[in-house]
Amino acid sequence: MSRLLAFLRTHPEGVTPLTAAREVLGLSGPPGHLTTIAHAALRALPGAVEGTDGLWRAAAPAPRLPLGLAGVVTGPRPPRDLLLSIGAAAETPGGVTTVLTAIVRPAHPLPQGVTLARPGGPETEVLTLDEALAALAPRLDGAPLILFEDDEPAEFLRRALEAAGRPETPGEIVLLGPALRAAGLLPRRAGLPGAAERFKVPVPEGDDPGLRARATLGIWLQARERLAADPPPDALFGGLEFGPEFLDTLPSRPGVYLFLDRGGNLLYVGKAVDLRRRVRSYFGHARKRRLGEEDLLARLFRIEWEETGSELAALLREAELIRSKRPPFNVQRDTADRRPAAGDLALFLPAGDPARATVLLVREGQPVARLELDRQRPDSRALREAVRGWFFRRDRLVAGDPADSRILANWLGTHGDRQNLMDLSETRGLTDAVRRVRAWLADPDLFSERVYRR
User: Fold this and answer.
1) Domain boundary among 295, 325, 355
2) Measured on CA atoms in the order 15, 17, 20, 23, is the torsion positive or negative?
3) Is residue 13 part of a domain?
4) 66: how many CB neighbours lie within 10 A of its CB?
5) Do 165 and 222 fall within a single domain?
6) How many structural domains does the chain have?
7) Which residue, 240, 274, 356, 367, could crosslink 351 as a Cys pair with Cβ 3.0–4.6 Å?
8) Does a structural domain hold residue 284?
């Protein structure tokens, strides 16, 4: 039943009983019989609802109270795949309460040089990962996770829940420290103890994750109204085309943002994993400006942005705009001295529209073409011409800026094992390469569960 509910949650558009019978229950036979059996299973499944269109969906979960979280995650980079300790805290009628402080006993030997975290305190338990997940899962499902500085414990729990086949899905992740600093409510270098003192919350002692989680949640409960009700002062927006409400219209997605003056001249280009958070950071209440920002904001009049779907696409688009527009406030910086990546690749990246995907073609380590394609009905002619032109014509030379190769090499060095990569040198010609690209685009798990490796 948990697999069936998890399937419904990953298909918010709704599924037919016949689809559930075949793809989740693993049944075969006449469609009428399968529909009858699946109907009975769906009706008996808590959290499943039938819509007026006859499709079944997971019921919208009730709003969950936030959960404070702290912990230690380590392991080979990447992924950080070993949870050493975990602490969680929840809001109760009597205040903030620690709900878990545990050392997590690993199922495999520790990497060389890594020791098991030993948080102190009488509440500390020693649990297996499955036991820790079972203890936290009822509180995790749909709950916002409040961490102070490091989101790795939350991301680890997301991956662990998926690997264990559990249907629970945590809510949004809130990094409290950066939010407080951007709002001018915390000095730039203040950590969790300093924030606890400022907000009159018991200061956590040592590395006990339960105490750290409780302090984090306590600070958030004290600060959330001020974070929501203390927008940047209107004085910051005098003479600009936009006001503070404009910042809330920015998407919380990867992209590039452009600062322009009153004459429409480009002043600055930046990239962001979260456009709303990054642009808002320039207008934080009483924030300390970096060198040159005062002059930039003094000339600013309008902000434009482009969604790119992924951080890598944002990096490459930023570099392209800096090269072509030469904005005066962009400091031309070295992108690192990593050797360019080698090989002929197709790299699949999310696009701004979930129904589309970006295919980045890489020849001999140099990004040479970027196509945004419909995942179910890609433009086969454009795809075929791009692949043929760059990989199956011997007279075509690699063109482009070497900086793009270094950006790509840095990205793959850090994120390569979590990206969808196809080695085009292993295909059996143009037709096979295009066929494989189309098949990967149509895979419903391309950007969720399944990650392809070279």
Assistant:
1) 325
2) negative
3) yes
4) 21
5) yes
6) 4
7) 356
8) yes
| Domain with 189 in it | 67-227
Instruction: Specify if 453 maps to a domain.
Output: no
Query: Rounded distance, CA 437 to CA 55, Å?
Result: 31
Report the run of H or E that residue 219 belongs to, with start and end.
helix 209-229
Neighbours of 152 (CB within 10 A): 16
Taking a C-beta distance cutoff of 8 angstroms, is the pair 419, 451 a contact?
yes
CB 288 within 8 A of CB 183: no
Asked if 164 and 217 sit in the same domain, the reply is: yes
Same domain flag for 315 and 380: no
The number of angstroms, rounded, from the C-alpha of 345 to the middle of its chain's C-alpha atoms is: 23
Distance CA 153, CA 84 (A): 10
The backbone region for 91, taken as left when phi is positive above 0, alpha when psi lies in -120 to 50, beta otherwise, is beta
For 261, 314, 332, the CA distances from 319, given in Å and listed in that order, are 20, 9, 10
Are 287 and 362 members of one domain?
A: no
Residue 304 β-bridge partners: 258
User: Is the distance from CB of 93 to CB of 117 less than 8 angstroms?
Assistant: no
Residue 331 lies in a domain: no
> How far, in Å, are 132, 150, 207, 214, 216 from residue 71 at the CA level?
12, 9, 9, 12, 12
- Binning the chain into helix, strand and coil, the percentages to the nearest 5 are 40, 20, 40
Q: Taking Cα atoms as reference points, which of 13, 18, 58, 50 lies closest to residue 34? A: 18
CA 109 vs CA 72, 75, 84, 154, 161: distances in Å: 17, 11, 12, 23, 21
Q: In what order do the strands lie in the sheet with 302-307?
A: 266-272, 255-260, 302-307
The residue type of 368 is V
List the chain pLDDT tens, one digit each, 454 residues.
Answer: 467 877 887 777 888 888 888 888 888 888 888 888 888 888 888 778 888 888 888 876 555 688 999 988 887 666 677 888 899 999 887 789 888 898 888 777 777 767 777 666 666 788 888 898 888 888 888 788 999 988 889 888 888 888 888 878 888 888 888 778 767 788 877 889 999 999 999 988 778 899 999 999 999 998 887 776 555 666 667 778 888 788 888 888 889 999 999 889 999 999 988 888 888 878 765 444 555 677 788 889 999 999 988 888 888 899 889 888 889 888 654 444 444 455 788 888 888 788 888 998 888 778 888 899 998 889 888 999 888 888 877 655 555 667 777 787 777 766 666 678 888 877 778 888 898 889 888 887 777 655 554 4
For 398, list phi and psi in degrees, rounded to 5.
Answer: -70, 130
